[in-house]
Give the backbone structure.
Amino acid sequence: MAAIDSPFRYSNGEVATSDTAKAFSWENPVPVNPFWDSFEYCIARNFLGNFSSTQLSQLPIDATGKDDHATKAGHLLSFLKDELDREEAAASGSLFETNHRRWYDLWQAIFVYQSELDLLEAEETIRMLVARNPDPKSEVRPSHILAEYLVKVGKYKEAEETELPVRAWMDARAHLGRDSPQAINARRIIAKALWGQGPPRRAEAKALVAEIDDIVDGMGGGKFGVYQTEEKRLNNVMKTELENLKGL
């Protein structure tokens, strides 16, 4: 893969450079080219964030993107597994013990691509990350990701129960708060989980959707205002998904 050059896209959907988006620690530029354009931002970021620019330049990735999406995702999953094996072998002990953050980041990315490929082992992987979380009170990513996956596979009640404390944690954090993209996404996960449980929970889901709309409508002047357009788009996607679940 040749060295990564601009333009890039960020999670707010902007192409080219976005100084405002780059100010947030969770942003990682995704190249705009035929290979990466078939991947949603968060899927691409989970791979790219695990490799240095030098490593990326040495990977056999064809930027022309001539392979289909599943083939590309399968290659990226293999690269991630190879990297985990390499770093485990090089560690003085268990990578989990010697560099837990690195261990987690690689496994999270592996899960993301397993899920992207609808592999059965995806659920086992994310449940393993939740079970092995050494500090669940302050590290909520595994539970947050599990809840989103549970919605995907139709385990709505467990998804709701998993995500409710995550939302509360995000709302209470000074660097996040209820109008952060993460807390808004937590509410979307809960809304989908409520809706998926059928007519008895639909009124709660509708009330939460209205709350999400209000939060997004009011975020324009806040510190997360750069994400408002993208959050509105994601809300519309959510509403379409809920409409498609009406028959459940």
